[in-house]
């Protein structure tokens, strides 16, 4: 029995030496084949060092791979023709017309309005009240003919029929230029200069009786993509007596999806998520935006806890607005709860995935005086103004592309799987001279061991049977 064990060990050792000597790796064959002890020690030392460095670098690369780091590639894509953005124009004041006067006077009594420092609270209350109670809200704000004195695009006069009406809870009646359904027949431009964009002359006046409760004076301009609601963008304010020049550049950003970030690449597919909030965004708007979805999540919280709603983005969840003092106290409490972070994490994020692709307009804004004193005097006489000047209620706006084309920012994986394999192969080849086929040699060794053990077991079984027959 002892001899058989020695023979098995000897056979396994012999086969292992044979396969190592024929291996494609460099260090281990030299250790076995060297007859000189000094050389054997030298090969052993350097093989040990190389093996340690190889293991260290392999662990470093695998660790880096699971950190999911990204690099950002930024480049400018030139175009000979660019789609002009949608421009939404509003008066900065919700209440501007004569029809607003009677409403404001009646609300002052109910609100117990007495101090100038209550302006903000009162106007906020009046806006919500008008949104809920007044059917024809258009009469409270500027009409298109009143707000836009003149409009020119590419040096040609615009037709006011090209503007579409849009109601904004904060600013009332607004009007959008180049807002087409399904992106059909959007206006394009082949010029990038101040004189080759959209020029608007705005009348931002407010009736005298309403100026005391609305200290702001001016216009609001939203510059946004046709597929997005204007309220998603940060607006530009324009002032009377000033020419505002807005040079714009488009920028597209594409992030790497999970696990490199928290975004999902399939948010534009309405069937991707079984979430009522996600589906509602797709129903109400042309494309999905997580900011709208989070606002819907907040609206759901208010409806469930306060029985009323405070709308930023149109949702059709509830038409009951928070108006009473008790409802507003509840609203404030839920607002604090929502902003604590835990509610968003537990209730909103699972239903509102983040989008990976976004588009924005970068704006460079400059100003000049408009009109000059002489022109102001002549225009005031022309319009037969008895009080004030022509420039008191007028703002001039130029919106144009600074350059045709757009900036593209795309995230790329710093270390993806093919690069990881290449790095591991390079490290193994550099330090130990091994490749993928060297791993097959290990498999070959295991198979050979199995055959030797099986052969020995078969011989032993045959001898045992012969003894039993005798």
Count, helices: 13
Structural class by SSE content: alpha+beta
Largest sheet: 7 strands, mixed
Distance between the termini: 21 Å
The secondary-structure element order is HHHEEEHHHEEEEEEEEEEHHHHEEHEHH
Which CATH class of the largest domain is shown? Mainly Beta
Low-confidence parts lasting 5 or more residues at pLDDT below 50?
none
Q: What oligomeric assembly is this protein in?
A: single chain
Q: Which range best describes the helical content: under 10%, 10-25%, 25-40%, 40-55%, 55-70% or over 70%?
A: 40-55%
The CATH topology label of the largest domain is Acid-sensing ion channels like fold
| Average predicted confidence as pLDDT | 81
What CATH architecture of the largest domain do you see?
Answer: Sandwich
* Global morphology: elongated
Please identify which CATH superfamily of the largest domain we are dealing with: Acid-sensing ion channels like domains
User: How many strands in all?
Assistant: 16
Number of spatially distinct domains = 3
Query: Hey, roughly how much beta strand do the residues contain?
Result: 15-25%
Instruction: Compute the CA-based radius of gyration.
Output: 37 Å
GO molecular function, one term: ligand-gated sodium channel activity
Pfam family, one: ASC
Transmembrane segments: 41-59, 430-453
Subcellular location: Membrane
